[in-house]
Amino acid sequence: MGLLKKVVKKAVRKITQPIRAKAHGAQGERKVNSKLNPLLFGKVEHRQINNLIILDHNGKSHQIDHIEIRENGIFCIETKSYIGLVVGDENSDKWTQCLYSGERYQFLNPVKQNRSHCYHLSKILGPRYIINSLVVMVRNNADKINCPNVINLSDLRGYLSHFDNGAHLSIEEMDCIYNALLSASSGMSNRDHIENIRQTQQELNNNICPRCGGKMVLRQSKTGSTFYGCSNYPKCKFIKKQ
Ligand SMILES: [Zn+2]
Question: How much distance in Å is there from the Cα of 119 to the middle of ligand 1?
């Protein structure tokens, strides 16, 4: 392949990549929906919320793919539909997608992303309920991911059925949780949510604290490392991640 052809191909791929990823994302969420379809569970009583967008106390929006409420627990489900081999673990900041063509892409660790979703959901429900985090790999490529709550879509039904951490929710509790979460919905569209993310990023780029509007300033920790923190500290403890 000529160099020019290669460059053009790469540029086109760069432009189309996020679009393809987005399309795969929507497709993935649909696949999980069908897996969570009540008909597939027979008589299992459950409540399900899809695509819930909530606002935190900083006005930042969070989009949660699925919330499954069952007798044995509440599950906050993040779906990922990356193709190829996906390598990652629980604590790293980024995971790597390795395509069969040899290309590699990094993306934010969805376990951490979903942990923050669970945190915001538990803020709504209070400390009485445990929110179980679950990341579902729609293309069944979770095998190289070293984390117990990252599973293949093919294992989702079995995982949910056998899950046992001692929770026993009554029908009334399930309804109560379902209604509390639904009423916390921001009513934002996916487009508004994406715009909210863009705005937050822009504020960070301009060294404005997205939490309080203060100025982000360079600070030094006790160990000597430097980081950007909000000038309104200790009132605002926002720290910009490097
Ligand atoms: Zn601040």
Answer: 20
Question: Distance between CA atoms of 153 and 32, rounded to whole angstroms?
Answer: 7
In a domain, 197, yes or no: no
Whose tokens are 């060294």? That residue is 207
Q: Give residue-wise pLDDT tens across range 59-106.
A: 889 999 999 999 999 999 999 989 999 999 998 989 999 998 999 999
Cα(239) to centroid of ligand 1, in Å? 8
Asked if residue 80 belongs to a domain, the reply is: yes
Ligand 1 midpoint to CA 121 (Å): 23
Name the DSSP letter for residue 62: E
> pLDDT (tens digit, 9 = 90+) per residue, 143-181?
999 899 999 988 898 899 999 999 999 999 999 999 999
Tell me, in angstroms, the distance from the centre of ligand 1 to residue 197's CA: 17
Q: Where are the alpha helices (DSSP H) in 127-230?
A: 156-162, 171-183, 190-205
CA of 211 to the centre of ligand 1 (A): 5
Say how many Å lie between the CA of residue 33 and the centre of ligand 1: 38
Supply the range of the domain harboring residue 178. 9-192
Domain count, the chain: 2
Give distance in angstroms: CA of 225 to centre of ligand 1: 20
Q: What is the 30 CA–ligand 1 centroid distance (Å)?
A: 38
Strand-strand pairing, 131-137 and 145-146:
unpaired
What's the CA gap between 241 and 173, in Å, rounded? 38
Is residue 177 domain-shared with residue 224, that is, in the same domain? no
- pTM of the predicted structure, to 2 decimals: 0.75
